[in-house]
Design a protein that fits this description.
The chain is of the alpha/beta class. It has helices at 19-35, 53-63, 78-86, 108-116, 134-151, 167-170, 183-189, 214-233, 237-268, 280-308, and strands spanning 7-15, 40-46, 67-71, 91-96, 122-126, 163-166, 195-199. It folds into two domains: 7-233, Spore Coat Polysaccharide Biosynthesis Protein SpsA, Chain A (Alpha-Beta Complex); 237-308.
Length: 323
């Protein structure tokens, strides 16, 4: 029973220069929905394409008002496209997929079932068998393994474009920067722990060329560090910087104390001893105390900023009763 939303599925498709595949993709999605009796909308988010993608979207909209479009003035990236697309959805379940026909629309009913009938909040596709070159698949495997270890989320394919969300999930997360690679982390951070995975068919690229480059691999790991830090210490920076600062300061202080004690001992025994400032350990100890103090202050300032930020008061409410 659908009490809040009258539409079954919203399909969000971010795209950049995919004119050749859009018509075929739209026809395929519509046929799948018709075969399974699902009501739907398709939201194309044109991320600043400079080919005829937008004109084709306009044409498709003229044929079917259920096909909607958003066009950016310039290329902002996939995360921005998803973020804006999520704001427009009205279906009970939200499906995201790429526009290059490598994601198979035949998987949509299965993903929908896992959300609606099996109770998952979020389901990520797993392209177990891929038709990409080794230059893309090998870095992807290494990246996914690292992401599993760092985040603790046991998914095989974090960056698969084919994903399914319960509607309130997409309204509770904010996809920014290049964080589309870590949507499972954002979902879990928002308090949705029913995260599933489904093996999906991967298609060979039929049109155009891949947008994958080595820069995406590097950015992916930088983003992994960012999302890990934000998830674990975003609301309590003092726990990280304060702890590190205290440990480093104490080590430096003990080293300086040891040097001072040694100096006093030799003086008491009337044994000639060099100046404390002539020892390299003195400067190492001094550097440790300075760095430790700076880290502690950084944690303190971070805590002040975090506590005064409006975002600290954005809580994810699971249910309301008589409100």
């Amino acid at each position: 029973m659908h009490t809040r939303f009258s539409m079954n599925i919203s399909v969000v498709v971010p795209l950049y220069n995919e004119e050749e595949s859009l018509g075929e993709l739209t026809k395929w999605i519509r046929q799948v929905m018709k075969d399974h009796g699902l009501s739907y909308e398709i939201i194309f988010v044109d991320d600043g394409s400079d080919d005829g993608s937008w004109e084709l979207i306009q044409s498709l909209n003229g044929e079917d008002p259920g096909i909607k479009g958003i066009r950016f003035r310039k290329n902002y990236g996939k995360s921005a496209a998803l973020h804006l697309g999520f704001k427009q959805v009205s279906g009970d379940v939200v499906i995201t997929m790429d526009a290059d026909l490598q994601d198979n629309p035949e998987e949509i009913p299965g993903l929908y079932k896992m959300i609606q009938e099996e109770g998952y909040d979020f389901v990520s596709g797993w392209k177990k068998k891929r038709y990409d070159p080794l230059s893309k698949t090998l870095p992807s495997k290494f990246f996914n393994k690292t992401a599993r270890i760092v985040t603790g989320i046991k998914l095989h394919d974090f960056n698969c474009g084919l994903k399914a969300y319960r509607n309130n999930v997409v309204r509770s997360i904010e996809v920014y920067g290049e964080m589309h690679r870590y949507i499972p982390v954002l979902v879990k951070r928002a308090g949705f722990n029913r995260i599933g995975e489904k093996v999906v068919k991967h298609q060979k690229r039929k049109y155009g060329k891949t947008k994958f480059g080595i820069d995406r691999f590097v950015k992916g790991f930088l983003d992994l560090m960012s999302i890990t830090f934000i998830t674990k210490f975003g609301k309590r920076p003092m726990h990280l910087f304060g702890t590190l600062g205290t440990v480093i300061f104490v080590l430096g202080f003990l080293a300086a104390l040891w040097l001072g004690a040694m100096k006093l001992y030799y003086l008491h025994q009337h044994i000639p001893y060099r100046l404390v400032t002539e020892s390299p350990y003195f400067y190492i100890a001094l550097t440790c105390m300075i760095i430790g103090t700076q880290l502690f202050v950084a944690g303190f300032l971070g805590e002040l900023v975090s506590r005064s930020s409006e975002s600290r008061n954005h809580y994810h409410v699971r249910e309301r009763l008589n409100l």
